Amino acid sequence: MKKADINSVEIARLAGVSRSTVSRVINNYANVPPKTREKVMKVIQQYNYFPNASAQVLAGKRARTIGLFLIAPGHVSSDMLVNRMIVSVIEDVSAYGYYVLTHIIRDASDQETVRNVKEIFFQRRIDGGIFIGAANREPFIEELIAEGFIVGVVDQQHPEIPQSNRIVANFNNDSGMKQAVAYLTGLGHTRIGVINGDMNRLSGPTKYEGFLKAMQLCGLQVNQDWVLDGSFHEESGYEAIYSFLRKNGERPTAIIAANDSVAFGAIRALKEHGLQVPEDISVIGFDDHALSEKHHPPLTTIRVDFSDMLKQLTSILIGKIEQPTDDVKQITLECSLVVRDSCRRV
Amino acid sequence: MKKADINSVEIARLAGVSRSTVSRVINNYANVPPKTREKVMKVIQQYNYFPNASAQVLAGKRARTIGLFLIAPGHVSSDMLVNRMIVSVIEDVSAYGYYVLTHIIRDASDQETVRNVKEIFFQRRIDGGIFIGAANREPFIEELIAEGFIVGVVDQQHPEIPQSNRIVANFNNDSGMKQAVAYLTGLGHTRIGVINGDMNRLSGPTKYEGFLKAMQLCGLQVNQDWVLDGSFHEESGYEAIYSFLRKNGERPTAIIAANDSVAFGAIRALKEHGLQVPEDISVIGFDDHALSEKHHPPLTTIRVDFSDMLKQLTSILIGKIEQPTDDVKQITLECSLVVRDSCRRV
DNA sequence: CTGAAAGCGCTTACAG
DNA sequence: CTGAAAGCGCTTACAG
Hints:
By secondary structure, chain A is an alpha/beta fold.
């Protein structure tokens, strides 16, 4: 069924030149006279010839493929944020003529899974990779970097010894938290609680520390009863509030959630308990999730631009792939407050 | 920086065997004595050796990669449905040890774009591809199939002459529409309108024809003023209703939307016009979008299982890749009514 | 059971 | 400006 594959020697024969010349026109070498180039191009187009990618890579070209690794235990398919990121990366790299091999890691502690990820790098299927959602200092990512692979990591601590093949991308979560606390303070809140994210990810502790610092700056007391555990997922926000309310202790007037998903869950739990947002309690999120605007109530949040981050990250990554240099690259993006209707003045 | 890459001759040398033998243990040939296998495996593991994928492919192995092509003019990143599909395919194929190269096609009429897609096939980056969201009989996909590539297509008409390398996957939209009309009829509706999808996609006309047939079956008259144009996107649902209401003509008591996104848009337009759903008008969607359940009101819809479809499709696709056969494969999945709160009895 | 050798389809110094 | 040749790292008949 499949048409006999045509290759460069066939093209060479048909064009009356050598394979070397065919290769030269394909790779846009300067020293090919226009006449020759034209002649060869005509045959190439006529026969719908495209050089075999594996042969090119084996002969020293790049795979022009980057790996996109999403660490996400179970929740990926429903999270629009992840979707945005996948699409962002695909479109960003395609502008450079690159492809993306997307991989989902359900359990980063599973040996088999880790082996598969490493395999992708070692097999040279990709020229570099981006990891999103990993625990801070995830060992196997560190290994990959130590091995010399070009890796972009989102939400990871900078290493003590900077490495030129590690590109770190973060948001200024510290500043984001300050904005959140300052905003609430401005509305008159003094009793502010927080639902934390996953403390194994860098943004977990970073946001919490930012919260503590911001509270101090505003001269507010942190009530440890109002510091709730979470994990960046909606369910964790729900559960945090659910079990908090069961205790029937004193309540904060405002809650800062580690991200918008957590805020959604928290609000759901509050509603179920008969508490209105923002009438009875104010809630502020983080990320500006696609659904936050349409949420009831529309969620006040700290906006973060993942698309912009990934655009910068992929650009640097591909730059490093094409031209490995010793300079250390890292990016930090600012966050900004988006006021909607989930917080009220007290 | 990068550790000297180790290759099979090096492994062979270290294990005291020939490259042939190394290859044999890697490829699990039967005729390797356990002792030898063990010896070689030890070296392989010790040196963290993974065979170079390009070399393997060039030597005749499969790329173990399938292409996932999403045709989606602009709206991809916000549509959770697309996300679900991407993730589904990735996870489905990874169960077979395959990878996916995801590609987004913004404009299938752009020559450059089409060339890029073809290139991916001709370069042998992938063993086969899946197209989602394409116009029915999209010419370049037909070309690819004619060329002999193994292709899975969602929502496409079966060809007159069946081809073994074309795998067609559809939902039984006809039955879905019948269920929708029958349900509304059961609630006492006789004045039923419809917002169509993109008529260039198979499901556009199929759903509409299903609607017409179902109306006839139920002995109902189709009012052409209530047949509105759309395109499967929310905005089109909004616009369809918006301009319909401006005309101030007679109104249907129920509307069937080509999919849930369209229904969301339609409901938004109705609300803006001061009409309540389902009090003033009933609306039923199609797909059972992830947001339909949380919508206000929760949307009654015809459920369709994309994950199941893609699971079957990828399974057949990979089967064909590994063992090309002449049998023609196609799948059709049933739809089912999900009753929620967007339709009322009249 | 195992090795030597050919071959997969390219690219790129090298020589002219 | 251009061709012959080596090399990329594998796999797989072939022969023993």
